[in-house]
């Protein structure tokens, strides 16, 4: 292979590729979990969640492809086996466990929040330690997307809790002053 001369040392590139593969593993595992919940959800919110999760796993699939292509652009090779994904992932599976719809939503937004926290660290490392602003910018875009998805999922669970509330004053307790 010809040397890659993009202003990063081989050590910097390899370190960034490692971070990207860790992110790829988390995204791929989250994609699998989202698809599984898409298949298994039941209850009054079936259609809403079924359609939402299809949108989300399709977006995650595109993100996984983008991450893999960023790895290749840096001269690395993306993980491509379930064994590799499980070894590198920081989020966990829940084998032989089929939660109710609200718990599915909670698990997914918790995973998105976990990935966002990881991405904040990866972004800082890419910028400050590895001098790779391109990857930092790329990961920032992913982070913003995952923050929005986590918010949407949290809002679903919070909305379910509000529907079960008998007091209308409960819904304003967490509002900022003046709203």
UniProtKB/TrEMBL annotation:
Pfam family, one: Ferritin
Domain Ferritin/DPS: 17-158
Gene3D superfamilies: 1.20.1260.10
Top-level taxon of origin: Bacteria
Region forming the signal peptide: none
GO MF assignments: ferric iron binding
Similarity annotation: Belongs to the Dps family.
Protein name: DNA starvation/stationary phase protection protein
């Amino acid at each position: 292979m010809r040397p890659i001369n993009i202003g990063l040392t081989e050590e910097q590139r390899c370190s960034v590729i490692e971070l990207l593969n860790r992110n790829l593993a988390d995204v791929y595992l989250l994609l699998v979990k989202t698809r599984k919940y898409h298949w298994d959800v039941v209850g009054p919110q079936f259609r809403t969640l079924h359609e939402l999760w299809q949108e989300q796993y399709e977006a995650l699939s595109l993100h996984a492809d983008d991450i893999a292509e960023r790895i290749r652009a840096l001269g690395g090779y993306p993980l491509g086996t379930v064994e590799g994904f499980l070894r590198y992932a920081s989020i966990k599976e829940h084998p032989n466990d089929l939660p109710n719809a609200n718990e599915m939503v909670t698990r997914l937004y918790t995973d998105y929040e976990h990935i966002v926290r990881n991405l904040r660290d990866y972004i800082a490392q890419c910028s400050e330690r590895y001098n790779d602003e391109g990857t930092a910018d790329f990961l920032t875009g992913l982070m913003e997307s995952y923050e929005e998805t986590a918010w949407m999922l949290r809002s679903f669970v919070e909305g379910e809790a509000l529907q079960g509330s008998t007091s209308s004053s409960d819904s304003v307790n967490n509002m900022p002053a003046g709203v």
